[in-house]
Amino acid sequence: MNALWFYLIAFILIWTMAILFRDRLKIEIHGPLLMRRTKRLRGFIDGLASGHPRLWRWIMNAGIPVAFFFMFYMLYMLVMSLQNIFVTPQASLIVPGVDIPGSPVYVPLGYGIIGLATVIVVHEFAHGILARLEGVRIKSIGLLLLAILPGAFVEPDEEDIKKIRPISKMRIYAAGSVANLILAGICFALFFGISSFAMPAAFQPDGVQIDSVVPGSPASKVLTPGLVIESINGMPTSNLTTYSAALKTIGVGEVINITTDQGTFHLKTGRNPNNSSRAYMGIRTSNHLRVRDSVASVLGDTFPFALTYLEELFFWIFFLNFAVGTVNLLPAKPLDGGLMFEELLRYRLPERIVKPAVSYVSIFVILIIAVSIIWGTGRGLLMMF
Length: 385
Known about the structure:
Elements (H helix, E strand, L loop, with lengths): L1 H19 L1 H4 L1 E4 L2 E6 L3 H10 L1 H28 L28 H25 L4 E9 L2 E8 L1 H6 L2 H37 E11 L14 E5 L2 E2 L3 H8 L7 E6 L2 E6 L1 E3 L2 E6 L2 E9 L1 H7 L6 H22 L8 H11 L4 H33 L2
Antiparallel strand pairs: 1-2, 2-3, 3-4, 5-6, 5-12, 6-7, 6-8, 8-9, 10-11
Helix pairs in contact: 3-5, 4-7, 5-7, 5-10, 7-10, 7-11, 11-12
């Protein structure tokens, strides 16, 4: 719950400052939305665009088919999720630092904020660069805040966009998500290199560590983050593999004995929010690592742990850029994928068919996402209190 307090305090401070200094800071307030526009970075974007115009166009020309692949793949996955939408929702609200019961993902606060910052900056600057390459003027660049959720925008001139060719529009619309996917690919390669080669060379597993405890879960009043689980019901848990094997022997409603580095705890399991037939404790774990003796003799016992921070940082930058980039390609306006889908239909179909088709698909996609998020997240939030 500490993260929720962080968001509440941040919300009060930011909105108080925005209201008090609204005129001095040129902040626009539109209901729950704060916006601040500027023209200062337009020259910087012009410089990036003019530096390597052929490279930017080549990247986006290659990126357009990639964007359409993910558009239809994500749509397919969304449709397939309908069969289990009220059992295991596929969409979940991701709030860094807040662990929601039933959510398949928990994003740590610090890594989440850094990761989302890279998503926003890379996405919007890519739109701006391609807009300038296609001769579209940028009216303003700015930051926004929806309640407490940060964002950024590059505002192109809509009249200029109407005048350019369809392929130019496609490049502009695809730019943000393609840039996110490129950054995701780079960070995944770095994460893979660290986790597959550097980490095994520097560390060896020594038990299973509790990284976080889900609020309102069976473990919330028994276990705490930082404990190292050594065995469950007498079964050794020297690493995640043996830990997973021990979990398979646990039944719903069973009182289990968890031996840790700080004593033995007794916990009654509950039902998994996403699968009522499986036992649920409500903890997220990782291998507890010990520096190998050969490495410790050279680098000590502390310095090698910098690798673990880099591994997590690159993973969350990859994950958030990939997740946001692909979701943004869904064929639903006002998402970039919706704009691309609309241009694609215009190649062969008259406007009287394009507009209704895009509207119906957009409503369908947004409805599925909304129901999945409301059902999955709402149910999880109720379990927290």
